[in-house]
């Protein structure tokens, strides 16, 4: 036990002599928080800019335009067709609504048509606008159907509808999607930091073998098994500190609402820490030098980090890449945290937890197998 404590202390001293390691172990996990705040903070609520191209000129088209002007956080401007195309392409407008000739008549007849909504920002914008516009138009179309072509009757019903106290009330609700995205990006950077921290710490096994420090230590009462286990203990300790430091900054300094209990999130990340150390040891036992160990880390860590959705939503990736992600521990960490954000209980996610433990077990079994193939734990390659 005394030898183990000395090895742990020595490993920490050697590691933190290099200032770059302080950045790797402390600053890199926090970088994820700043990136999340910058990317998501720039997406705060702004007014929706809508251009109206009115080729119809009818009363219903004008009334629809007036209705949209009354919606909070929506700025309406009349534009020509050429201006609409130019401004939507440059980003000056979020979307353009076009009332084609015959729009007013089609609505009055009960069969709305001759309306188009265009946006380069996709369904997120067009869906929002459609929900308001189509609801308003459908109400008028229902009046047209009830009038059954009787102009006088339609005018009377439409006048009553317009004069009634109808409107849109808006309420501010918590943007849980934004919180989830910020949590995913923060955790994604943390997982990357955990992997590279584990890789840097376990690489000491190869470096000290290269500079003969390892063999000199074996001339003392220290055993090779103690030497390896002390490195694992240091790696787990440093990663645990990374986890708790990051979570404390998230919860109590930046006050980001993750929707997950502090201790539940810490537990899931600590389980992944076992996989991180196991995977890092694999890059050591299959390398015969520190350079080859570094190459293995880059070949394994970065591709798996990107494929698992640590940097961007996995939904935007091709289906084959999403299937590959199912075989990566980082993906299961993110999936577990996402389900916790949805309100599921940690005890109900036993399958996810078992899979994370299984990844760690497989990685350590590979390391143990490699050691046994070499007949002695003193051989790392």
UniProtKB/TrEMBL annotation:
Name recorded for this polypeptide: ABC transporter permease
Cell compartments where the protein resides: Cell membrane
Family according to the record: Belongs to the ABC-2 integral membrane protein family.
Membrane topology note: Multi-pass membrane protein
Boundaries of every ABC transmembrane type-2 domain copy: 151-374
Record keywords: Cell membrane, Membrane, Transmembrane, Transmembrane helix, Transport
MF terms (GO), sorted A to Z: ABC-type transporter activity
Pfam families according to UniProt: ABC2_membrane_3
GO cellular component, one term: plasma membrane
Superkingdom in the source lineage: Bacteria
InterPro entries: ABC-2_transporter_component, ABC2_TM, ABC2_TM_bact-type
TM region positions: 20-39, 187-206, 227-254, 266-287, 299-321, 349-369
């Amino acid at each position: 036990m005394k030898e183990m404590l000395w090895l742990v202390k020595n490993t920490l001293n050697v590691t933190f002599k290099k200032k770059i390691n302080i950045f790797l172990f402390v600053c890199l996990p926090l970088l994820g928080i700043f990136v999340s705040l910058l990317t998501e903070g720039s997406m705060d609520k702004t007014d929706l800019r809508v251009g109206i191209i009115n080729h119809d000129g009818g009363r219903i088209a004008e009334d629809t335009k007036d209705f949209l002007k009354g919606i909070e956080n929506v700025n309406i401007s009349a534009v020509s067709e050429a201006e609409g195309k130019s401004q939507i392409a440059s980003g000056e407008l979020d979307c353009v609504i076009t009332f084609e000739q015959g729009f007013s008549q089609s609505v009055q007849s009960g069969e709305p048509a001759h309306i188009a909504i265009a946006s380069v920002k996709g369904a997120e914008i067009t869906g929002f606008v459609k929900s308001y516009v189509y609801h308003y138009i459908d109400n008028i179309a229902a009046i047209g159907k009830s009038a059954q072509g009787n102009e006088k009757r339609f005018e009377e019903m439409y006048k009553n509808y317009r004069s009634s106290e109808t409107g849109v009330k808006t309420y501010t609700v918590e943007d849980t999607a934004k919180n989830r995205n910020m949590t995913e990006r923060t955790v994604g950077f943390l997982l990357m930091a955990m992997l590279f921290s584990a890789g840097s710490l376990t690489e000491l096994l190869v470096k000290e073998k290269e500079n003969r420090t390892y063999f000199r230590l074996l001339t003392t009462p220290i055993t090779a098994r103690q030497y390896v286990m002390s490195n694992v203990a240091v790696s787990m300790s440093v990663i645990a500190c990374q986890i708790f430091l990051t979570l404390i900054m998230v919860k109590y300094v930046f006050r980001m609402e993750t929707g997950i209990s502090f201790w539940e999130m810490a537990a899931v990340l600590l389980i992944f820490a076992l996989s991180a150390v196991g995977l890092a040891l694999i890059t050591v036992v299959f390398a015969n030098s520190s350079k080859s160990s570094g190459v293995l880390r880059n070949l394994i860590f970065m591709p798996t980090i990107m494929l698992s959705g640590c940097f961007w939503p996995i939904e935007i990736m091709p289906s084959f890449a999403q299937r590959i992600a199912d075989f990566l521990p980082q993906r299961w960490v993110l999936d577990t945290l996402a389900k916790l954000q949805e309100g599921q209980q940690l005890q109900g996610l036993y399958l996810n937890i078992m899979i994370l433990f299984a990844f760690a077990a497989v990685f350590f079994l590979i390391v143990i197998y490699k050691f046994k193939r070499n007949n002695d734990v003193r051989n790392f390659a």
